[in-house]
Write a structure and sequence with these properties.
single chain; about 260 residues; alpha+beta; Immunoglobulin-like; 2 domains; five-stranded mixed sheet; five-stranded antiparallel sheet; 2 helices
Amino acid sequence: MFAILGILAIACAAGIVLLSDDSSASSFSVAPSEDGVDYAKTSSTLRYTINYTLDSSQATYVAVLEDSDGNSKGSVSSSSGTLYSTSHTRALTLTMPSDAGDYTLKVTVTEGADENKVEYVRTAYVRAVDPIKLSVTVNNSGAVARSFVAYFWVEKDTGWEKIDGSKQTVDVSANGSKTVTYDYVVRDVSNTTFCLKAEDTATIGGDIQGLGEDHAHTYYTSANDYRMIEYLCVGVIVILLIVAIWIYRKPIRNFGKPKGRR
């Protein structure tokens, strides 16, 4: 016993660490590169990041984008590679599948070799969405062509909000019209009220119609269309039930002559 303690004392004095520290173990995580942005337009790109700390000098990884059945969808660049201890992040560029839906980014990291090999599997949620097609037609009733910069705006619970990235230069010919469109990408698609606003209303004159909140439009989701059909069906069923009950409870009158007395 004293011999063991003596050996440990000598080892500590020599600066030799015999006990492993769990805090130095490798760690891995996968997350969107832009905080909270785990969605993108179908067939577009989205960036994720592998965040890691290595206990060894290097490790290898394989990344794949999968659907709910475990089938590979879209693509990942770079889908495989080496992680070095001199860094702590590795960027991944996802090419979204062409079909809207929920997907999983699966990253498998392998550290060590042979009997010392350790595998880590990390996953992250990814959503591919179909964009909402916003469309506004602007009319020019004047005899002079107009050109102006405009943004799409959407109505939120807190008021109207400008869509960053929707900036467009609108050219409208004299006595003509121009349809302006924009693919609005949101994580959760719902009914959306929107309008088109000029960046500088003072420069477009009074001959342009179709701009501003007074000319707002509403995009209705297909789910909402089905819900309206469901409401109509329920209403028809209720009316039929009321009519059936009324007919059933209606008294039957005997218009025949009464039987003669014997």
